[in-house]
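Sample entry (205 residues):
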Amino acid sequence: MDTVALLVGLGPLIGWGLFPTIASKFGGRPSNQILGTTIGTFILALIFMWVRGLAFPSGSDLLLSIVSGIGWACAQIVTFLSFRLVGSSRAMPITTAFQLLGASLWGVFYLGDWPGVTAKIWGGIALIAIIIGAYFTVWSENKTQENSSLLKKAVIWLLFGEIGYWLYSAAPQATSISGMEAFFTTSDRHVNRRDVLCCYRNSGK
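Predicted structure, serialized as tokens:
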């Protein structure tokens, strides 16, 4: 196993793990949270693009990067809204499970991942374990009708949000653009989409 690749993979694990906790700690409306997240991502993307000397994508690469960014922005809006319903500690296991399931099934059926019967069997077992783990994470011993209703609503929202996360990961795979080259363009779409949402929310106050 490549140790460097494993360590690089732990970076997003830590970042995505702290992200919902920090967003919930700062509070604010979903429009505030999503705009703040986007500005930070956009600034980092600008610095990263400048340091690496990357060219701005064009043509289909640009279009698919934009689709990817819009998908992520829409999905993240839904995720932030679900935080208000059931809290980040219950919403995150659900959306993470949906993302892992969606990405894995897309990889198996479209990209040809998990070649061979053995790989598919072990992969299927892992997906079942993810579902069971997510269920027990959000399970509550003292259930109320109101809490059950909110959880059900959050699950439905997050299920639709998975469509956005699927676009976010699948769109760049339809072209030859690398993740580094797509980073700035997707973050740019995050900013534009979230600016619109923030203005809309504020106008309704």
